User: Fold these one by one.
Assistant:
Number 1:
Amino acid sequence: MTDSDEPAHVHIKLMAGRGSGGSPVFEVLPARSLGGDLFELGGSPGLTLGCAAGDVLRVADDGAFEVAERGENMCVQAYRGAPFTSELLAELTTAVQELGGLVEAPPTRQFIVVTVARAVGESVVEEAMDAWAAGIDQAEWWWAQPDEA
């Protein structure tokens, strides 16, 4: 395979929703260009719902997207009113690593993104997330892109 045959690594802008004033809110994520409007998502989103790392997305110029093909991962997002402490992030990281997953957060720790292989199963991930969030004031988590199989 020559360099020109390899999918280009790019960043794509996905519409995550609308702000309080109605303006669109975008999230920029790493991806591999598969040609045309198709991209394989290189990381799970922190704001955008409906996709996870490894999904193949059809992305429009305005950031709207549809999942053309589900990848092997599920994505969970967590938030609370205050930033998560480094200790809370470390606790979740340990729990998720035991499942073979990945935990990511921005330096401010305002939110947390968890990527776990679909093969692990929703119930196992739910149990781990519920156990972690149980003692954290105002902590919430939700599926950004659950297993739909």
Number 2:
Amino acid sequence: MENLLQTTVELTVGLFALLILTKVMGKTSFAQITPFDFISALILGELVGNAIYDDEVRIGTILFSVFIWGLLLFIIEWATQRFRKTRKFFEGNPSIIIQNGHLNRNEMKRNKLDMNQLQHLLRQKDAFSVREVAYAVLETDGQISVLKKQKYDQPTFEDFKLKENPVHLPVTFINDGIVDWENIKKAGLDENWLDKQLYEQRIDHYRDVFYLEWKYDEGIYLEKM
């Protein structure tokens, strides 16, 4: 009876400790599960599980294990928010698998993605042929985001006998007040162009911009700090 009572108390404490930890980490921790998040969940579950079912482990050990692991996760989360260069290491980068309607075989190879896997991911996005896709981005959580060619989108342009226009992918120019000059250069633009855009929006400096993306046929979209 005493063992049953102790197990009940330890399970209850472990549950509430994990619940508090998830609240502290925020909802975005569950919106996108990266490989690092997956490993973290496994280790945390193992820590609590072993602590609960080991007779020699007490409630204090459970709380201490959850606290230390939660603290490490919080530090890493803070670092990825504060220092952009750490995001690539802990979270990874999205990869463009299909670009301008063509397969990027180098990115597929780098991400260990074969055609059967790609077709499976595309079908989950209602794209049953590669020819329907203008751009496909493999996200850091293993999911794929698809931008279809206009004539295959719903409702289709062919249904209305409309002229088909080229499809363009939005490009991020500023993120967290930091300019991605490489993206600007690839787009065929320069610093003078960016300064002009910010001037038209009555913005004095890049640091005043939280997020700015550019699309060839629609121009810029931005959010201020």
